[in-house]
UniProtKB/TrEMBL annotation, chain A:
Species assigned in the record: Liquorilactobacillus mali KCTC 3596 = DSM 20444
Signal peptide: none
InterPro entries according to UniProt: 4Fe4S_Fe-S-bd, 4Fe4S_Fe_S_CS, FTHF_cligase-like_sf, Helical_ferredxn, LUD_dom, LutB/LldF, NagB/RpiA_transferase-like
GO molecular function: 4 iron, 4 sulfur cluster binding; metal ion binding
PANTHER family xref list: LACTATE UTILIZATION PROTEIN B
Region Disordered, annotated ranges: 468-492
Limits of the 4Fe-4S ferredoxin-type domain: 302-333
The organism's place on the tree of life at top rank: Bacteria
GO biological process: lactate metabolic process
PROSITE patterns with a match to the protein in the record: 4FE4S_FER_1, 4FE4S_FER_2
Name this protein carries in UniProt: Iron-sulfur cluster binding protein
Keyword set, alphabetical order: 4Fe-4S, Electron transport, Iron, Iron-sulfur, Metal-binding, Repeat, Transport
Taxonomic lineage from the root: Bacteria, Bacillati, Bacillota, Bacilli, Lactobacillales
TrEMBL record, chain B:
UniProt feature coiled coil, ranges: none
LUD domain residues: 51-231
Stored Gene3D superfamilies: NagB/RpiA/CoA transferase-like (3.40.50.10420)
UniProt cross-references to Pfam families, sorted A to Z: LUD_dom
Name this polypeptide is given: LUD domain-containing protein
Domain of life of the organism encoding this protein: Bacteria
UniProtKB/TrEMBL annotation, chain C:
GO cellular component, one term: cytosol
InterPro entries linked to this entry: Cys_rich_dom (IPR004017)
Any one GO molecular-function label of the UniProt entry: oxidoreductase activity
Residue ranges of every copy of the Cysteine-rich domain listed in the record: 3-86, 134-217
Protein known as: Cysteine-rich domain-containing protein
Length: 492, 234, 255
């Protein structure tokens, strides 16, 4: 399993992100631009909440009957002369693909963007084959590859963290002598990749949706590289997560619309293709067509609270609205699946030991849940992960368990709370400052700049209001207020 | 043989989910609403044309309206405006329908054709060398400015992606409101046997990418520009 | 109309001014208030941190306490805490003792401004405040409680108050309950961006319907030594009130 993108501890990654100003600025800029585009595209469609109902229904339905749909799909692929391989693990998937590459004597492999092939670390495995070269043909993935296989930071915009100058330097190594203008650099990539494409003998793609009732696969892109990958080489291997399936072309069409609007704010992306092995009379397209259906930890979600994570259509909208992602970026998460969906999915695929930090890296603001086109309750699933870690696995997650359990006792007991109210002002005396603050009407009873224990996280960043004397607190005021009211009434 | 591992795989996920296999027959998918059908429903062909133009231009498409008699002149204008020297055309029986038989005949020597009898390598090389393609679309979707094409022996996959400039001809009667209507047509054609194809492309404007600093650049792998020509009297 | 005050632990512990303003506004509009004494906390701190077993006792206590007085409605000065009460029926749906009570509680619980605007139908609370202010929209109030209109509508009618829109209204302030304490490194960056956004508006007063967000943002303002006045929306609606100006929905303006 290689969804991990870093061996560094979570806090180190957060610190590195904080110092990466270009990354932070470009993420913020991307989020803001996408916010407007996405909102406009959804409003233009109209009835967005009802479209979400439909999207959720389609995805929940196929997850519920997943084995049946996969069976139907694989039957239909084989009817068309294709082959289907079911892989429980990344290793099985990689071995199968290597076997096909060897059988076909593939020397030049083209790939179109696929998160699932990144997940199984396919590129490096194929490069180990003798006399084999491989080319990522999505512009962003191509840049990452040529930059010594840098890790992606977004599931839709993998190079969000790189600026044009860095990309220009990457291209210089390939003989590029032009400016840092994105258009000029893209033209260079077009020419460079086209030459490679025309010689390619094996194409590897991902799959947005597999069409159960006709065995086609659906790919949604903007550049056209996926279509060249499916047109030119004689052999095509499709790698798909086992949950990426729909009943028919009709549901694929619904989800393509929702995906395009959610991912990039377009009504449809430039290319939505529905494709299978070449049929008689056609001259291009794959004569040899393989689909690898991958579990690789996805089934851990089945039958659990986390099943809704399999509804995901990988639009990345939750990343684009997430205030945490905005600041720590993709590398902060340390998983190829970052952002809210990554914080839910990564521990499901690869466990809490590696990704237990991620569910806590959320303010539970629910922007993700609100934007998800297929209604995955993302922030609630984050709470469920926390529950598994605390209640079930008894992990002591940098937060002091004794203290938090104490908080549970204290906040369930009116008597203890009353004692707290009575003692809070005096108890905070040694910590409090009476010095002036720049803020009016928040620190009416003083403030605290350095608090002990679990509250130190608070005062590391901000001042804390000091509790009022018990006689000045709300409960005491209310008692007096009621008494005055009653006396007032009796005076009348 | 490839499916020797299938049963183990499917049994495992059924067990993990706690739901038995083979339940779908009694629980087919029934959509909870008809938005895909009802959205933009009931529009006249004129309204669809207007919508199609607006939405195509919004995705950087050059949108032309013409009629059968003026079509060839418009195509010639396109060839000279784009300075096209290596044209590729499809092999199909639509030329007569569109009143282009003479126009096509004149180009037989100078243009290349995606030919059913040619090999993969030959057809792909022709398309790759072409700086222009003129092809026929099955449908045009008004909502998104999308042309749809099913791969045929005479108009292969590479035809739509390899040339530099691309022009697509669509009869006005083939403008549909949305992707759902196109899907219904394709499903019906495939089921009835009228259409045998390995591939259906929905193409919305020229190839583009925002991968470098999210700056939109046009023409990364596919055509650099797109022209749609709607023939109003067909 | 009888209203039980859901005071919230934050207001009980730290901000008497907020609770007081809320009670005064409600009583002015004709509500008869009560304050259930055994209430402590909605349980979010422990529940959202994953300590679900410990949280159940907190929920039971809060449900019993808030339902202990005879009231038509339960009203609190915090969108987030009220959203938590509204989640009780879902969390406790399989609990034979509490599922019904949880539903009863959820059905009559409202955040202060949504109660005033949607239930009481008040559009102008009669308040006056001569200030330039901006409003911070709390995430839970907006997304979990689904209340996007009430506070804006009420503030729009405060006499002499100039409301300036806050850029990036949609972004969380970085409070997130225990998140602010547990992940200060990330929380700091979020609250800094929020502080910067507020400063960019030129507003001198920051208003919100969630005391916890205000505690976070105001605390950061103070640490950065930037000037701002913090006001809960109840305090604004309770400021310089001229009761003759109180106006209800569907009521023709007489002036």
């Amino acid at each position: 399993m290689t969804i991990s993108t870093s061996d560094k501890p979570f806090l180190t990654r957060v610190k590195e992100s904080e110092n990466d100003h270009f990354m932070q600025q470009s993420v913020a800029k991307a989020q803001d631009a996408q916010w407007d585009k996405r909102t406009a595209a959804r409003e233009e469609l109209g009835n967005w909440e009802q479209w979400r109902d439909l999207g959720e229904q389609i995805r929940q339905h196929v997850i519920k009957y997943l084995p049946d749909y996969l069976e139907q799909f694989s039957d239909n692929v084989e009817k068309k002369g294709g082959h289907v391989f079911f892989a429980q693990t990344d290793e099985q998937a990689v071995n199968y693909i290597k076997k096909i590459a060897k059988e076909k004597k593939a020397h030049r492999i083209v790939k179109s963007k696929s998160m699932v092939t990144t997940e199984i670390n396919l590129d490096k495995a194929l490069l180990s084959l003798p006399e084999t070269s491989i080319m990522e043909t999505d512009l962003a993935e191509f840049i990452l590859q040529e930059d010594n296989w840098d890790e992606p930071t977004h599931i839709v915009f993998p190079t969000l963290h790189k600026n044009r100058d860095q990309i220009q330097n990457v291209f210089k190594k390939l003989g590029y002598s032009g400016s840092n203008d994105p258009e000029e650099m893209a033209k260079f990539a077009r020419k460079y990749l086209r030459e490679y494409f025309m010689q390619a003998d094996l194409g590897i793609t991902g799959c947005n949706f597999a069409i159960a009732d006709n065995g086609m696969i659906n790919l949604v892109t903007n550049e056209g590289n996926a279509d060249l990958t499916m047109a030119i080489p004689k052999t095509q291997i499709v790698v798909m997560g086992m949950e990426r399936i729909v009943p028919s072309l009709k549901e694929a069409e619904v989800l393509d619309n929702m995906l395009s609007r959610s991912a990039v704010g377009q009504k449809l992306t430039s290319y939505c293709s529905f494709s299978g092995p070449q049929v008689n009379g056609e001259s291009d397209g794959p004569t040899d067509f393989h689909v690898v259906i991958l579990d690789n930890g996805r089934s851990n979600a089945l039958g659990t609270d986390f099943e809704p994570v399999l509804q995901c259509i990988r639009c990345g909208a939750c990343l684009n609205v997430c205030p945490i992602y905005r600041h720590i970026g993709g590398h902060g998460y340390g998983s190829i699946y970052p952002g809210p969906i990554g914080a839910v999915l990564s521990p499901v695929l690869d466990g809490y030991e590696k990704f237990g930090d991620l569910p806590f890296a959320s303010s539970l603001c629910a922007a993700c849940t609100e934007t998800c086109p297929v209604r995955i309750p993302l922030h609630q699933l984050l709470i469920k992960h926390r529950k598994v870690m605390m209640d079930k696995l008894k992990m002591d997650h940098s937060f002091n368990n004794v203290l938090m359990k104490g908080a549970g006792v204290a906040t369930s007991s009116p008597i203890l709370f009353k004692i707290a109210l009575e003692g809070a002002h005096m108890g905070s005396a040694p910590l409090s400052k009476s010095k002036e603050t720049s803020v009016d009407n928040l620190f009416n009873y003083g403030h605290i700049e350095k608090a002990p224990s679990i509250a130190s996280g608070w005062t590391d960043v901000r001042d804390l209001a000091r509790p009022p004397k018990h006689s000045d607190d709300f409960r005491s005021w209310y008692k007096k207020h009621k008494k005055e009211q009653q006396e007032g009434v009796s005076h009348d | 043989m490839t499916n020797s591992n299938r049963e183990i795989f499917l049994d495992k996920i059924a067990t993990k989910a706690g739901r038995p296999r083979h339940q779908l027959k009694n629980h087919p998918f029934v959509p909870i609403n008809d938005l895909p059908e009802s959205t933009l429903a009931g529009k006249s062909q004129d309204e669809l044309l207007e919508l199609a133009q607006k939405n195509s231009e919004a995705v950087h498409v050059t949108f032309e309206k013409t009629n059968r008699s003026s079509l060839s002149a418009l195509l010639n204008d396109f060839l000279s405006a784009k300075d096209i020297n290596n044209l590729i055309l499809p092999t199909c029986d639509k030329w007569t329908t569109f009143g282009l038989s003479d126009w096509e005949n004149k180009l037989v020597d100078s243009a290349e054709f995606w030919a059913p009898e040619s090999s993969r390598t030959e057809n792909l090389a022709k398309a790759n060398a072409a700086d222009g393609a003129i092809g026929f679309a099955d449908y045009l979707l008004a909502e998104s400015g999308t042309i749809t094409v099913a791969t045929t022996p005479g108009q292969g996959r590479g035809f739509h992606f390899l040339p530099t400039h691309y022009l697509s001809i669509i009869p006005k009667s083939h403008i549909l409101s949305r992707s759902r209507q196109a899907m219904r047509k394709y499903e019906a054609a495939i089921t009835s046997g009228r259409l045998t194809t390995s591939n259906i492309n929905f193409i919305t404007g020229p190839s583009n990418s925002g991968d470098i600093e999210m700056v939109l650049v046009v023409g990364v792998h596919g055509p650099l520009d797109m022209t749609y020509v709607v023939v109003e009297d067909l | 109309m009888k209203v039980a005050i859901f005071s919230t632990c934050v207001v009980d512990l730290l901000f008497p001014n907020v609770g007081q303003a809320m009670v005064e506004v409600l009583e002015r509009i004709g509500c008869e208030t009560s304050l259930p004494t055994n209430q402590v906390c909605c349980g979010q701190p422990t529940y959202n941190s994953g300590y679900h077993k410990e949280s159940n006792k907190v929920f039971y206590n809060e449900i019993d306490a808030l339902l202990s007085t005879d009231a038509d409605y339960i009203v609190g000065p915090a969108g987030s805490c009220v959203a938590m009460l509204r989640q009780y029926p879902h969390i406790l749906k399989d609990n034979p003792d509490y599922s019904k009570k949880a539903q009863e509680l959820a059905d009559k619980s409202y955040e202060f401004s949504q109660f005033v605007y949607n239930i009481l139908g008040v559009v102008d609370a009669g308040a006056q405040l001569d200030a330039v202010a901006t409003y911070h929209r709390s995430c839970h109030m907006t997304r979990l409680l689904g209340e996007k209109t009430a506070p804006f509508a009420l503030l729009d009618n405060v006499k002499d108050l100039k409301m300036v829109p806050l850029p990036h209204l949609e972004n969380c302030c970085g409070f997130g309950g225990t998140f602010s304490v547990k992940e200060p490194e990330i929380s700091k960056q979020m609250v800094d961006e929020k502080v910067d956004s507020i400063i960019s508006t030129g507003a001198r007063v920051l208003i919100s319907a969630d005391a916890s967000c205000l505690m976070n943002i105001g605390g950061r303002f103070s640490r950065r030594n930037e000037n701002i006045k913090i006001m809960h929306i109840a305090e604004v609606l309770n400021h310089n009130v001229d009761a003759s100006r109180i106006r209800y929905k569907n009521q023709p303006t007489t002036v």
